[in-house]
Structures are given as structure tokens and as C-alpha cells.
Design goal:
- With about 200 residues, this protein is mainly α.
- It contains 7 helices and no strands.
- It has 2 domains: about 100 residues; about 80 residues, no CATH class.
- Helix 2 runs antiparallel to helix 3 and helix 4 packs across helix 6.
- The longest helix is centred in the N-terminal third of the chain and has 27 residues.
- The chain is globular.
- The protein starts with 9 loop residues before the first helix and ends in a 10-residue tail after the last helix.
Length: about 200
């Protein structure tokens, strides 16, 4: 098992956190302001170019980051690999988002969008639920399966969790306008309790 003392110590992680998120925040802000990835706001050719450029920048960075953290590169490369992965991750995210928009504009895209929309509207609730489920499955607080299952098992479990969340999200939104944590977050932001029920 490889040593993680170079990059995973709390001080090292704390020093990197501001840089890890700030450039991604700025890119996200610029993307939102220009509506670059908004539906019907960007042409097909532009999305293809964004996808190609994002993959060209992001994939090498992700590969280098993985090689530095997991091998075959030795521990001296871990810190540089982490930095490289952080810097190129937004490019890879842009490629994923552009590719997804291209898929949604295809003949089956609208059906797929209708299927995924409920889970997207409960994004925070689903994120927290996934965290709780995987914590129970992986850590000593639950089944303690971390490191004891293969990658295929993890992928199957993740897919099962997401399928269940798709069904639960759709059922929830038939009765309520928003998810429970989305409701709570909006209440905290507005300093009041918004209406949650969609139907009496």
C-alpha cells in the first residue's frame, strides 16, 4: 500500500483547498454568465469543439494525476499530480457537460431528460443520501466493505442506488414541489418556511 504522507496530511490538504475550488468557481461563473452550456444557447459545432478541447486538456491531467497517486509514478510526483488534476478537472467537467448536451439533443434525448429531471431537482437530497448509504456500506460504522469488494461490485452498487433514487425522486415530486433538504436550504436562505406541498 502506498504512503500518502506527501499529499494527504491535513496541512497539505488545507493549503490546496482554496486553489482547488477557486479557479473552478471562476470558470463556472463565467460559463453561467455567458450561458455557454445552456440548452439551445450554444450550437452543435460549438459543443463539439468544447467537448474536444475539454477532453484534450482534461484527460492527460486526469491520467497524470492517477499515475502520480496510484502508480506507476513514485511518491515524489504525488503533490504535482494532485495539482495537475485540480487544474485540468474543470476542462474535463466542461467536456462531460457538452457531451451530455449533445446527447440530450439527440432523438432519445428528451425521454432521457424526463427520466433524469426528478433526480436533478432533488440533487442535494440525493447527494446526501448517497453519502449516507455509501458510508454505511464502506466504513466501520456500517458493513465495513471498503477494500474488500472489487470495482465491478462498487459500480453495480452505485447504479442500483441511483436507479432507486430516480424512482423515489419521481414519486416524491408527484406530492411535493421540492426535496426535503432543498426545502430546508431555501427556508434557511429566505429565513422563513416555504410551502412544500404540491397537492392537497
Amino acid at each position: 500500500m502506498r504512503s500518502w504522507t506527501v499529499t494527504s496530511s491535513p496541512p497539505a490538504v488545507a493549503r490546496k483547498l482554496p486553489f482547488a475550488g477557486f479557479h473552478a468557481f471562476l470558470l463556472g461563473l463565467a460559463t453561467g454568465k455567458t450561458r455557454l452550456l445552456a440548452r439551445n444557447a450554444t450550437s452543435r459545432s460549438q459543443l463539439i469543439r468544447i467537448t474536444a478541447a475539454g477532453l484534450a486538456l482534461g484527460v492527460p491531467g486526469a491520467v497524470f494525476s492517477a499515475a502520480a497517486s496510484q502508480g506507476p509514478l513514485d511518491e515524489r510526483w504525488q503533490s504535482l499530480g494532485l495539482d495537475g488534476g485540480m487544474l485540468t478537472a474543470p476542462a474535463l467537467s466542461a467536456a462531460y457537460a457538452s457531451a451530455l448536451l449533445l446527447l440530450l439533443r439527440s432523438s432519445w434525448g428528451e425521454r432521457t431528460e424526463r427520466l433524469l429531471t426528478p433526480a436533478g431537482r432533488l440533487a442535494l437530497t440525493n447527494y446526501l443520501t448517497q453519502s449516507v448509504v455509501m458510508t454505511v456500506v464502506a466504513t466501520a460504522y456500517g458493513l465495513s466493505l471498503y477494500g474488500r469488494t472489487g470495482a465491478a461490485t462498487v459500480v453495480v452498487l452505485a447504479c442500483l442506488v441511483y436507479v432507486v433514487q430516480l424512482a423515489v425522486s419521481a414519486a416524491w415530486l408527484r406530492r411535493f414541489r421540492q426535496g426535503p433538504t432543498e426545502w430546508l436550504l431555501r427556508a434557511l436562505i429566505r429565513a422563513r418556511l416555504p410551502g412544500g406541498r404540491a397537492r392537497s
